[in-house]
Specification:
The complex is a heterodimer of chains A (362) and B (129). Chain A is α+β, with helices and mostly antiparallel strands and 362 residues long. Helices cover 20% and strands 33% of the residues of chain A. In chain A, a hairpin with an 8-residue loop joins strand 11 and strand 12. The longest helix of chain A is centred in the middle third of the chain and has 11 residues. Chain A is globular, with a radius of gyration of 20 Å. The relative contact order of chain A is 0.15. Chain B has a single domain, classed as Beta Barrel (OB fold (Dihydrolipoamide Acetyltransferase, E2P)), CATH 2.40.50.100. The longest helix of chain B is centred in the C-terminal third of the chain and has 10 residues. The chains are: A alpha+beta (362), B alpha+beta (129).
Chain lengths: 362, 129
């Protein structure tokens, strides 16, 4: 199968990006160095092409009610111009996907889903939407994430929209570098910044303008490698690694995006209510290795030589400069300071549960 | 891309280099290997005194995204390991043929050297891969 290309594919190649197949998309994994790109986002500003993400829209009378029954968070309590991080859950309380739902108005809701899950999510929504039918608008949007402490300054120089009026997880519409965009103060790096949605045909113009204007800020184009290490340092969940169909939102520590008292409810709610009352048996924790090695997805977590859990994500944290990981462990081992081993190529390496996010600005 | 391939070294198809220094051989990974790996963040080294076998795995090198085995170019005893890599594994990226060396061996059979590639053969391997 030929990999799909975002509208920025040629631009990535011109910049010398190393391209990889990512869930059927030909995407940049790095341009120069994963660590260099990671540091640019933490200290200056980085650009990510996230056009492969999917966008599913509910519009017309009843859009809010229909979309709200599908997601765990509560759009009815959000303001117009507000975005909510949320889950789509299966009947067992496990994840179909994690999403960001944008409330333009009660008659227009846009749900942004992971690229790897777009077709699954769309079919799932089509089958369960009671009222308004979802429309897959993924081909109508390109998306560029501008992330880092210098992101607001950079984007502000390219727009007349007053960005100081857009709070975290709020959005508006306007022109950036002459390109009509949804300007959203969101991202998945732990840094301040914006996600800019525009028409695919305009994406390259926007990308080039951000790169040019951002030179004075030390802007770097960033690939999937840095995106992964940045979100791991924040203990932000990645679908397919840290969250999936078999782990519930409460086990994943994402109870805060599940409004259990929501009017009208959501799919999977009953399981979570029961689980909350009974307590979860396993939890997703962040840990540091105190021995040498790098924890990786799938490595066993051992206690007294017995397998009790599994690493879901891990890396050498570029800012924390320690081997860090995320994984499911029995609840008894989930408190800060608890110790266990991570099995790395047959060798038990000691680890300790730590407070997350791993990285915090000093 | 062929990258930087010093003429005075021998090479393996797994992208290690070997430099003969008297009766010892210094081993590292090529510039091509470090470029392909990306940022190196961890190296698992053998112990001094360990016996390595030509073509067999002797350690592990990890970058931000990948885990790769290291293969010994020759059979022999480890006489030195580059302990500095424990604290600065990124030296493999910045100086793969110098400070980024990995182990020093005392080969048990120098005839095995004939089985390694010279610089032009390695360059051809990269061109055709």
């Amino acid at each position: 199968m030929v990999a799909r290309r975002t509208p920025l594919n040629e631009a990535h190649r011109r910049l010398g990006a190393r391209m990889v197949d990512f869930v059927g998309w030909d995407m940049p994994v790095q341009y120069s160095s994963v660590i260099g790109e990671h540091e640019a986002v933490r200290t200056a500003v980085g650009l990510f092409d996230v056009s492969h993400m999917g966008e599913i829209e509910f519009s017309g009378p009843g859009a809010l009610e229909t979309a709200n029954r599908l997601i765990t968070n509560d759009l009815s309590k959000a303001a117009d111009g507000q975005a909510l991080y949320a889950g789509l859950l299966n009947d067992q309380g496990g994840f179909v996907d994690d999403v960001v739902a944008y409330r333009f108005s009660p008659e227009r809701i846009l749900i942004v889903v992971n690229a790897s899950n777009k077709d699954k999510d769309f079919a799932w929504m089509q089958a369960r939407a009671q009222g308004v039918k979802p429309v897959d608008r993924s081909d109508d949007f390109a998306q560029i994430a501008v992330q880092g402490p210098k992101a607001p300054g950079l984007v502000q120089r390219l727009t007349r929209v007053d960005l100081s009026k857009i709070g975290t997880y709020r959005f508006t519409e306007g022109q950036v570098a002459g390109v009509q965009c949804i300007i959203s103060r969101t991202g998945y790096t732990g840094e301040d910044g914006f996600e800019l949605y525009c028409a695919p045909g305009e994406a390259e113009k926007l990308w080039e303008a951000l790169l040019k204007e951002g030179q004075q800020d030390g802007v770097k184009p960033c690939g999937l490698g840095a995106r992964d290490s940045l979100r791991t340092e924040m203990k932000f969940a990645l679908y397919g690694n840290d969250i999936d169909d078999n782990h519930t939102a409460l086990e994943a520590g994402l109870g805060w995006i599940c409004k259990l008292d929501k009017q009208g409810g959501f799919i999977g709610q009953d399981v979570l209510v029961k689980q909350k009352a009974e307590g979860v048996k396993r939890k997703l924790v962040g840990f540091e290795l105190t021995g040498s090695g790098i924890p990786r997805h799938g490595y066993p977590i051992l206690k007294d030589g017995q397998r009790v859990g599994e690493v879901t994500s891990g890396t050498m944290g570029p800012m924390v400069k320690k081997p860090i990981g995320i994984g499911y462990v029995p609840t008894g081992l989930a408190t800060e300071g608890s110790t266990f081993d991570v099995e790395i190529r047959g060798r038990p390496v000691p680890a300790v549960v730590v407070k997350t996010p791993f990285w915090k600005k000093s | 891309m062929a990258g930087n391939i010093p003429q005075n070294l021998k090479y393996t198809k797994e992208h290690e280099w070997a430099r003969i220094e008297g009766n010892r051989v210094v081993v590292g990974v090529t510039s091509h290997a470090q470029e392909a790996l990306g940022d190196v963040v961890y190296v698992e080294l053998p112990k001094v005194g360990a016996t390595l076998t030509a073509g067999k795995q002797f350690g592990v090198i990890e970058s931000t995204k990948a885990v790769s085995d290291l293969f010994s170019p020759l059979t022999g005893k480890v006489v030195k390991v580059n302990d500095a890599l424990k604290d600065s594994p990124q030296t493999i990226n910045s100086d793969p043929y110098g400070a980024g060396w990995i182990v020093e061996l005392e080969p048990s059979d120098t005839k095995e050297l004939a089985g390694l590639m010279d610089a032009s053969a390695y360059e051809n391997l990269l061109k055709n891969s």
